[in-house]
Design brief:
This is Radical SAM protein. By secondary structure, the protein is an alpha/beta fold. It has 2 domains: about 260 residues, Alpha-Beta Barrel (TIM Barrel); about 50 residues, no CATH class. About 35% of the residues lie in helices and about 15% in strands. An 8-stranded mixed sheet has the order 2-3-6-7-8-9-10-11, with helices on both faces. A 3-stranded mixed sheet has the order 1-5-4, with no helix packed on it. The chain has a 3-stranded mixed sheet with strand order 12-13-14. α3 crosses α4. The longest helix has 14 residues.
């Protein structure tokens, strides 16, 4: 990105009146918690970005929907917010939180939450430049359990990712040199067959992991909108089909784990965050033992001490809170709670309240797939 382009980003514009409805709803519930996205628009043009799914990819300038204080007040007043418990993400859906101009609103939002005394886990995902002065301001927070997840892929095809991965690598090094209270994750994604799954890529990721408290690896959301974008850019299809879940073939995982032997690496975001802070996983993955078989022994012990099969009446009480229709159809095992007719917000709210996995029968989690697409595992 040019200096001229960056200078144009130092001021965030007010959002236009015709903003799509999917973006006006700037608080939603996702697997890593309540997601606050009151700024939309990003110039980084990462071809795999979820902005394709929210009618937002063409908006290159960041736009502010509401003031930070209003956004934070709406967040903590949301029906799903629980003080000191609910995980929170900020600016993870429609912009990058460390873009010039945007990071001012990131700091204000974090400080507004921290100033209220909340100790909730907060996840901030970026692939942009972090300055030492940014870390100094983040380190001044005293209550929130803050984790910065630095997205790095090593992809050098401009049609997929025009912004150099060296920027993210530099941000991780800055965090390593100056962050203490704030935890840092190498967010190695998306790993795509034929693009960035060579031994050289794996070796580079391992070297970068030395600057992080943990490494989380994951594959590609290969939805129809993203496949169409890549086709228009002249790329052949990355996989034979699209999928609802992320694609990461079995062989790629096997080779990744071989390269990372002896380093803390995790299949799930919340597992890496939990390890970095020395706390149990807020998504309760411990019941799915094959997810946890790569976790360090000390982390498995922490999660194991906090893994308790919840009482059915407690489950049904939470199901009523989220207006789950089929209360009688709820089943529980040592691995997971199973429900029917649910949407993601309902399941994830219950999951975070219980620290126990909640799955829907219509979208089963196949054993040893780790919640991923079937592609490459058949």
């Amino acid at each position: 990105m040019t200096k001229t382009a960056l200078s144009n980003l130092k001021t965030v514009r007010p959002a236009p009146d015709d903003l799509p409805r999917s973006l006006l709803n700037y608080i939603d519930y996702r697997k890593s918690g309540l997601s606050l996205n009151h700024i939309v628009g990003c110039p980084l043009d990462c071809g795999y970005c979820v902005r394709h799914l929210f009618e937002n990819f063409s908006m290159k300038r960041p736009h502010l929907i509401v003031d930070d204080e209003i956004a934070v007040q709406e967040l903590v007043g949301h029906w799903a917010f629980r003080a000191h418990t609910t995980p929170i993400q900020i600016f993870n859906r429609a912009t990058d939180p460390f873009l010039p101009g945007v990071k001012t609103h990131l700091f204000r939002s974090l400080e507004a939450l921290d100033g209220r005394g909340f100790r909730n886990p907060v996840l901030v995902i970026t692939r942009w430049k972090i300055e030492p002065s940014d870390v100094e301001r983040l380190e001044a927070l005293t209550n929130l359990k803050l984790t910065i997840l630095v997205t790095w892929s090593g992809i050098d095809d401009d049609r997929v990712e025009p912004v150099s991965s060296a920027i993210a690598a530099g941000s991780l090094e800055v965090l390593a040199s100056s962050a203490s209270r704030v935890k840092k994750i190498l967010y190695w994604r998306p790993i795509i067959s034929g693009l960035n799954d060579t031994n050289d890529h794996f070796a580079s990721a391992r070297r970068l992991s030395e600057f992080a408290d943990a490494t989380v690896f994951t594959g590609l959301f290969y939805r129809e909108e993203i496949r169409a974008y890549f086709r228009e850019a002249g790329l052949p299809d990355l996989y034979a089909d699209v999928a609802r879940r992320k694609v990461l073939p079995r062989d790629a995982e096997r080779r990744i784990l071989s390269h990372f032997e002896g380093r803390p690496i995790f299949r799930k975001t919340s597992c890496g965050v939990a390890f970095a802070h020395g706390v149990p996983d807020f998504n309760g993955h411990f019941g799915i033992s094959e997810i946890c078989d790569i976790c360090p022994k000390a982390q498995r012990e922490i999660c194991g001490r906090h893994h308790h099969r919840p009482d059915m009446e407690v489950i049904r009480s939470l199901a009523r809170v989220v207006s789950l229709a089929d209360l009688d159809g709820i089943e529980i095992s040592d691995r997971r709670i199973e429900v029917s007719g649910s949407h993601e917000a309902q399941r994830y709210f219950m999951q975070h309240a219980l620290n126990f996995q909640v799955h829907d029968r219509a979208q089963p989690h196949r054993q040893h797939r780790h919640g991923r697409a079937e592609i490459g595992w058949e």
